[in-house]
Amino acid sequence: MAKKIAVLTGAGISTSAGIPDFRGPHGVWTKHPDQMNVYDIDSFLSDKESREYSWRWQKESPVWGAQPGIAHKALAKLEQAGLLTLLATQNFDALHEKAGNSDDVIVNLHGSIGTSHCMKCGAEYDTADIMNNLDNEPDPHCHRKLPYKGNMPCNGIIKTDVVYFGQALPDGAMEKSMRMASSADEFWAIGSTLEVYPAASLVPVAAQAGVPVTIMNMGHTQYDSIASRLIHDPIQNALPKLVDETIAAETAA
Fold it and tell me: Phi and psi (nearest 5°) for 73?
């Protein structure tokens, strides 16, 4: 029976693809704490100028135009080999989707910038369509026609599916992640400082279930002592190597 590997990814896997992190020493919010308001749900809902700034900032952010790096593609390769059962990510850049991982394994703990929803009627939008029209409509509102209102447009506020400060995590995201992490054969934490909860709690959840934990991160984390394997090499080199070794070992078994 194929090995089951559960993975948690953090900002470190995307910094190797050119996206600056938010909380690190040189992170966006470390250098510009005022920009945390871009993802403040109360400001977004209550103030038109805040919404326009949030949309424009997100469009101009490296997150929006980024492409998956070699480390993202390695995890797609792991799934194609039938070994990846969970890819829980703290990143909302949608790079795992772009790299080829499927919705079967991806859990976007902090949401995703790839899709957006109307906060009134729930209509789904492709964020790319909204971004392409942002010059014409800097404060996007829902155009869905409501039959029960004489086909008048809904006109609700549209928001990306990124989890903003003040919002709950997506329904069932942590529950599924904890279930898959604790039933895996291995748990890998890749490029996460393991400081942000509840995502960071997946490491002790896996360890307490007897699942061997690998932590791959340039810096030290609070859970290094419970890891059975620590890797401090650059992720863009170390992760493809680990994936290839894992697939080779499974093939030889």
Answer: -65, -30
The yes-or-no verdict on residue 30 having pLDDT over 50 is no
Helix, strand or coil for residue 221?
coil
User: Is the predicted pLDDT of residue 25 greater than 90, yes or no?
Assistant: no
Q: Other CB atoms closer than 10 Å to residue 253's CB: what's the count?
A: 7
Clarify whether 26 is annotated catalytic: no
Active-site residue identified among 26, 72, 96, 110: 110
Structure token pair of residue 26: 């040189």
Tell me, yes or no, if the pTM score tops 0.85: yes
180-208: average pLDDT: 95
- Give backbone dihedrals phi and psi of 20, rounded to 5 degrees, phi first: -65, 145
Could you give phi then psi for residue 41, rounded to 5 degrees? -65, -35
Residue 42 has pLDDT above 50, yes or no: yes
Rounded to whole angstroms, the Cα distance separating 107 from 124 reads 18
Query: Is the Cβ–Cβ distance between 9 and 91 less than 8 Å?
Result: yes
Within 10 angstroms of residue 47's Cβ, the number of other Cβ atoms is: 14
Percent of the chain with pLDDT over 90: 70
Report DSSP state, residue 169: P
